[in-house]
Amino acid sequence: MIVASSNPFTTLEHLLRHVLDWLHGTIGLPWSWSIVALTVLVRMVLVPLTVRQIHSMQRLQAHAPQMKEIQRKYKGDRPKLNEELMKFYKENQINPAASCLPMLAQIPVFIGLYYTLRHFTKHVPPHSNLSWLHIVPNITQHANAHWSGYLLLAVYAISQTSSTLLMSSTMDKTQRMLLLIMPLIFITFLARFPVGLLLYWVTTNLWTVGQGVVTRQLVPKGPVAPPKRSSRTPPREDAAGDGATAAVPQPPQPKPAAAGPPRRVKRKKKKRTRR
Questions:
Q1: Every domain of the chain and the residues it spans
Q2: CA 140 to CA 32: how far, in whole Å?
Q3: Considering 79, 140, 197, 222, which has the largest number of Cβ atoms within 10 A of its Cβ?
Q4: Alpha carbon distance 32, 182 (integer Å)
Q5: Max CA pair span of the chain
Q6: Between the CA atoms of 19, 21, 26 and 28, what dihedral angle is there, to the nearest 10 degrees?
Q7: How far is residue 269's CA from residue 275's CA, in Å, rounded to a whole number?
Q8: Cα separation of 162 and 210, whole Å?
Q9: Contact assessment for residue 237 and residue 247, using Cβ atoms and an 8 Å cutoff
Q10: C-alpha radius of gyration, the chain, whole number
Q11: pLDDT above 90 coverage of the chain, percent
Q12: Which residues pair with 132 in a beta bridge?
């Protein structure tokens, strides 16, 4: 039974603990793999938000040239630039915030799981197996308490960087660089968190990487822009039909003979008749 509380994180803590108890007691998963399964369930629930995120990123990528032109045009006028971008987003049905929805939705789950693991040993039987693959001795301990925690921190940094590279291809260079640096900053904080939180975040990063790979394989690539024409570019000859085959070159025509000088026409003199 989930106990209601005025603190929403306490309610979320009880909910996550009941889900972990169900995965461990009913499904038969170890506690560490129950956290991995919990992460998969959370990401499955967030699939609609993920689909909106992918569609939003596709629209941003398709309209990137127009957006760059607006940024170039109003480079010196920040308020006007924001106004024109908002109009552009509205006209083309683009929601830039949609790319952040899956991550924002996971923040309450992350905090609730932190409270769950902090009081986890009070709700599990004594001498329970809290290890993961016999590498992590206890998923409730801090990551900096054992060498395996540092190993998970390294896996977290690699997986976070990979997911950022896959999901931020349409972002500004400065924003993308900040997202690539953030994992290195977060490591100092995550080292003081329970290892179970690292398992959750590594699993969700690996899910994001796999999702990005599948998306790139399924989404068709856009048409390639034709090359810019110049004065030296020969005129394009489209073949008949669908244009798949090139036009057959015609044999060279013989040059006309050079015209000679104009011919003189001799006129016959009329004979005078005698009277």
A1: 8-123+130-217
A2: 10
A3: 197
A4: 26
A5: 157
A6: 110
A7: 19
A8: 10
A9: yes
A10: 35
A11: 15
A12: 136
Q: What are the structure tokens assigned to 275, written together? A: 């009277």
Task: Give a three-class secondary structure readout of the chain.
Answer: CCCCCCCHHHHHHHHHHHHHHHHHHCCCCCHHHHHHHHHHHHHHHCHHHHHHHHHHHHHHHHCHHHHHHHHHHCCCCHHHHHHHHHHHHHHCCCCHHHHHHHHHHHHHHHHHHHHHHHCHHHCCCCCCCCCECCCECCCCCEHHHCHHHHHHHHHHHHHHHHHHHHHCCCCCHHHHHHHHHHHHHHHHHHCCCEHHHHHHHHHHHHHHHHHHHHHHHHCCCCCCCCCCCCCCCCCCCCCCCCCCCCCCCCCCCCCCCCCCCCCCCCCCCCCCCCC
Contacts of 233 (CB under 8 A, 6+ apart): 227
Residue 111 has pLDDT above 70, yes or no: yes
User: Which residues lie closer than 8 Å to 78 by C-beta, 6 or more apart?
Assistant: none
Q: Looking at residue 72, what is its pLDDT? A: 87
- Taking only the tens place, the pLDDT of each residue in 219-233 is 555 444 443 443 434
- pLDDT for 121 equals 84
pTM assigned to the model: 0.69
